[in-house]
């Protein structure tokens, strides 16, 4: 198997395990990756997933050596509506995904990282649109997600130049959410996942969904959707939380 799937309580870890090619993704690996995320989505006992790569590298993108191999070549759908060559890029997950990034997250690997809600990046990691050098376009969501995460101007800088971006620059532009010491991204990502999994889930998921859905509609419609999805959770979870606060929990910002 090119993709490992491990479960620990309410968190699953999905690992691309092709270190001999820096976890580059060929056709069969893309299918495994998509299946792993579908498995996470379908399991009501799981609250958060962590996506990472084996051997000190997140993902070097599509495996270009597979392009001419009928058994391993990536799926290329000219309609743009089916699965992408990296697997799950058009899938909108309903639960949080955290990327633990070591080494390189470049080309299609960067696009996989952009699929995550949060990116924990090791201090010597490198991100970038490296496929620019080979005439390979971003067709796994990169041109959609990157501008939404870092802004139009910064996205064009990366898309047009293909230049490498270090961890601290990635943090400054919002591409990274945390920068951690080399070798600690997976541990840090799990700590973050455990924190997210520990919150009242209905309220958190309603807020998360509203953040994503507001991109698709005018502001007035987004405001209405926010209220429609969020208000029921005031009674379902918020009332009990308010009572805990009144009794003394959470003082001075304590979690």
Spatially, the strands of the biggest sheet line up as 1-2-3-4-6-9
Residues in helices, as a percent range = 40-55%
Alpha-carbon Rg, integer = 19 Å
* Secondary-structure element order, N to C: EEHEEEHEEHHEHEHHH
Count of DSSP helices? Answer: 8
Strand content: 15-25%
Could you walk me through the main structural features you see in this protein, from its secondary elements to its overall organization?
With 255 residues, the protein is of the alpha/beta class. Helix content is 41%, strand content 15%. The chain is built from 8 helices and 9 strands. The strands form 2 sheets. The protein has a 6-stranded mixed sheet, with helices on both faces. Strands 5-7-8 form a 3-stranded mixed sheet. β1 (3-8) and β2 form a beta hairpin.
């Amino acid at each position: 198997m090119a993709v490992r799937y491990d479960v620990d309580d309410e968190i699953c870890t999905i690992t691309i395990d092709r270190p001999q090619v820096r976890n580059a993704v060929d056709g069969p690996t893309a299918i495994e990756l998509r299946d792993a995320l579908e498995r996470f989505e379908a399991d009501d006992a799981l609250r958060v997933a962590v996506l990472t790569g084996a051997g000190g590298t997140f993902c070097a993108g599509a495996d270009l050596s597979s392009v001419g191999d009928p058994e391993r070549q990536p799926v290329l759908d000219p309609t743009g509506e089916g699965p992408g060559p990296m697997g799950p890029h058009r899938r909108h997950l309903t639960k949080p995904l955290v990327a633990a990034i070591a080494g390189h997250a470049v080309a299609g690997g960067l696009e996989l990282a952009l699929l995550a809600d949060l990116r924990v990046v090791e201090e010597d990691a490198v991100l970038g649109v490296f496929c620019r050098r080979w005439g390979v376009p971003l067709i796994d969501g990169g041109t959609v997600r990157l501008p939404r995460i870092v802004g139009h101007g910064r996205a064009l800088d990366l898309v047009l130049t293909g230049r490498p971006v270090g961890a601290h620059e990635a943090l400054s532009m919002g591409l990274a959410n945390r920068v951690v010491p080399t070798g600690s991204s997976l541990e840090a990502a799990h700590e973050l996942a455990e924190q997210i999994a520990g919150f009242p889930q209905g309220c958190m998921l309603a807020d998360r969904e509203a953040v994503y859905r507001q991109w698709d509609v005018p502001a007035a419609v987004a405001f209405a959707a926010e209220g429609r999805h969020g208000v029921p959770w005031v009674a379902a979870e918020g009332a009990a939380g308010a009572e805990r606060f009144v009794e003394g929990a959470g003082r001075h910002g304590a979690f």
